[in-house]
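To assess whether the prediction recovers the assembly geometry, we first specified each molecular entity separately, as shown.
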Amino acid sequence: MDPVLTHLTAIDYAVMAMYFVFVLGIGFALRRSTKTSSDFFQSGRSLPPWVTGLAFLSANLGAQEVIGMGASGAKYGIATAHFYWIGAIPAMVFVALFMMPFYYGSRARSVPEYLKLRFDEKTRTLNALSFAAMTIFSSGISMYAMGKLFNLLLGWSFDVSVLVSAVIVLAYVFAGGLTSAIYNEVLQFFMIAFGFAPLVFLGLKQVGGWSGLTARLSEAAIGNGQAAGAYTHAWQGMTSASTNPLGVEWFGLVMGLGFVLSFGYWCTDFLVVQRAMAADSMIAARRTPLIAAVPKMFFPFLVILPGMIALALTGTAGGIIPAKMNAAGQPMLDAAGKVVMDFDLATPMLLIKLFPEGMLGLGLTALLASFMSGMAGNVTAFNTVWTYDIYQSHIKKGASDEHYLWMGRAATVGGIALSIAAAYVAGAFNNIMEVLQLVFAFVNAPLFATFALGMFWKRATGHGAFWGLAAGMSGAMLHHGLTLPRGSVPGIKGGFFGLLHTYPSEMAQTFWTAIVAFMTCVIVSIVISLATKPRPDMELKGLVYSLTEKPVDSGIPFFKRPLTFALAVLAMTALLNIIFL
Amino acid sequence: MSGEASLDLRLPIGGLFAVLGVMLAGYGLATASNTEMYVKSAGLNINLIWGVVMFVTGLVFLFLARRGARTT
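The predicted structure of the complete assembly is given in tokenized form:
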């Protein structure tokens, strides 16, 4: 067998090259207007909401998401859409209505800086350091995944693809800062939409439309020991973890994914919040997550359906999704002797199977674009947090604006260099990356509790927040260390402190770890806050809900108000859930 | 704050889509007689079809950018 899965022709390379001409052109065009640190880190708070909204969505739409959601679509079916309809939309609506007024209205330039204003320096520093480490790690993982995938598909050299993409990202972020990253994220959004829509169209045509897909997938579901409709109904069998492909019951799904994890990500992760903070007005900042929510709810059809179609086209006689290979180059078998499929290749392989040369170039460019904008998003969040929350507050206070702008550019270079290093570490030591991923999961799990208490309970204190966070992280580690998913051995999957409980799946364990971390953080924060001295109300104006003037929307026609928009978004999401019940 | 961003994002989006549209549609026309090549895309000349869609989308963005520049 040819070790390379496909070859590109001149037209494919021409499409790719044209995209990069525009990417670099945007950076170059923005270079002249990037004069102050506010321009570089905050886009001068001057962008219209449709731009920040699409970037809000797109910053999260890295290639891991596109490929990972395709993989989950092939593995779990349409239930993967819960990661959008339950695991994103409600949180996006919440951050828009209730949290944006504090982020945008306070003087904070970053999410950690909000923690400093609301609580104290140590809480900010804890958050800033873990966030900075996480961005480097994610952008390194993104580079690594890209280098590996394009090596496998096209035979490109890993080193060359990592270095070239790093240099391109460096060039446009260095030149135009956040604006440049945001503009390219929006461009990437349209590339993904226009690269994947025809893929889904052709795929559905091949399997005989939605009804053909349903018929083929019910066969596949029965073959895998699931109920016939398991892959095409999002809520079927959700009453018990053992009767649905996800292996989670509805409570763990709604509380763990829908509340703790999703609110923790969309409401506190500076990577996405930074996009909204670049908006040109308060109302634009509040609309940003709502504008993002509209395409978000339809993204399952672009990124999950390809995986489901790939599964439907993978018959017994070999098809789209290849088998996972072991070190000896033999297909891997599971405990039951069935071939283990490499689900991560579902979406890329479907591109290769359905797109002729020309369109193939477009589809692969869209994929490449999403890898790179994932890197750029992380790098812009990193250089801001580094410069404002670590460098300015601990290393060099009170320098000139020029100096911080210079520092931001230097941090961009440093951040990309560290990401490249992380990409190579990921390649050399798989275990280190798994451990780090786990550690970050512990760090993130309790975050939303801290923000929610800070914003809605004026009695919460800095000591309460800090120790609540620390306790939440420890609680997450303790829970993970005392439980295991069924069929796993103690180690990275958990159980390293002993075994108290066995979960039906890894996903169920993850969701419950988050729930435990959240509850621990809430309880410890409340107890310690009550035992420590509160800050006077005066100092908390604009930072806590009850002490902040509500944005007045009575001057705006009711159909243009954020609340109306939010209700429409929620109604549409509910409708999608009913359709795919 | 320096205020206004110096580049209307609709311009590069429109420009890129118009150019890619022309490239794909042109390639689709040039390969229109090659039925073998389009077997994998269910017999549709997807390059031509999607090239036209992208070209029109590009023009819409360029039109919006021009209209926006006139009103402000």
